Amino acid sequence: NAGVMQNPRHLVRRRGQEARLRCSPMKGHSHVYWYRQLPEEGLKFMVYLQKENIIDESGMPKERFSAEFPKEGPSILRIQQVVRGDSAAYFCASSPGSRGEAFFGQGTRLTVV
Amino acid sequence: AQRVTQPEKLLSVFKGAPVELKCNYSYSGSPELFWYVQYSRQRLQLLLRHISRESIKGFTADLNKGETSFHLKKPFAQEEDSAMYYCALAYNQGGKLIFGQGTELSVKP
């Protein structure tokens, strides 16, 4: 089991472009969580998804950010019209159920120039 | 509001010395608390959780509800313990975590 896979590891975008971050959960895991880590801060919860459903998006900014976890394929975190303040490390975690241990990916470091 | 506080950004100790990484939480319900560790260039991984009451790599942590603390301790630090340590609180759903700011532990030879 390769673990939670995130790609790309590093992503550079110009202001106004779109960023797409991908997360493939561990085999058998149907619960996915996205976290954001701004410089000098801890990880902050963004969104919790189960296959084809958003369970909790209380940590997602209201505009420009969206997430999906389709029936087939990886979970996608999409940031439209990126701004410098979006520069951060974005981590994905997966778990087999809602109460199971969460396993983390290595993160995607987004830099907006 | 739920909150996790790790007051020390950096903790530096010598090899063989005891180490304690502090974690305080704010939560009105029954908390489920974790310590995660991130070694250099590796992914975040679970070190221990309070409900299992186990010792991993010599580390232990006891939940003190009176002091709302979950400090991580090890009696004799090793150089390979150098890493970032994050205290985290789970509520409502097990995978949704509130993290502290993290403490960088540096163990010097």
What this model shows, in words?
The complex is a heterodimer of chains A (113) and B (109). By secondary structure, chain A is mainly beta. Helices cover 0% and strands 50% of the residues of chain A. The radius of gyration of chain A is 13 Å and the shape is globular. Chain A starts with a strand and ends with a strand. Chain B is mainly β and 109 residues long. The mean pLDDT of chain B is 90. The A-B interface holds A 3-4, 31, 33, 35, 40-45, 48, 55-56, 91, 93-95, 97-107 and B 4, 6, 36, 42-46, 49, 86, 92-102.
Quick recap:
The complex is a heterodimer of chains A (113) and B (109). Chain A is mostly beta strands and 113 residues long.
* Helical coverage of chain B, percent range: under 10%
Q: Could you give a short account of the major beta sheet of chain B?
A: 6 strands, mixed
Average pLDDT confidence of chain B is: 90
Straight-line distance between termini of chain A: 36 Å
For the largest interface, the chains and their residue counts are: A-B, 29 and 21 residues
How much helical structure, as a percent, in the residues of chain A? under 10%
What is the averaged pLDDT score of chain A? 93
Instruction: Note the run of SSEs of chain B as H and E.
Output: EEEEEEEEEEE
List the secondary-structure elements of chain A in sequence, H or E. EEEEEEEEEEE
Assembly of the depicted chains: heterodimer
The tally of strands of chain A reads 11
Number of helices of chain A: 0
Overall SS class of chain A = mainly beta
**Which regions of chain B are unreliable across 5 or more consecutive residues at pLDDT < 50?**
none
Q: Strand share of the residues of chain A?
A: over 45%
Structural class of chain B, by secondary structure, is mainly beta
Number of strands of chain B: 11
The largest sheet of chain A is: 7 strands, mixed
The proportion of strand residues of chain B reads over 45%
What separation lies between the terminal Cα atoms of chain B?
41 Å
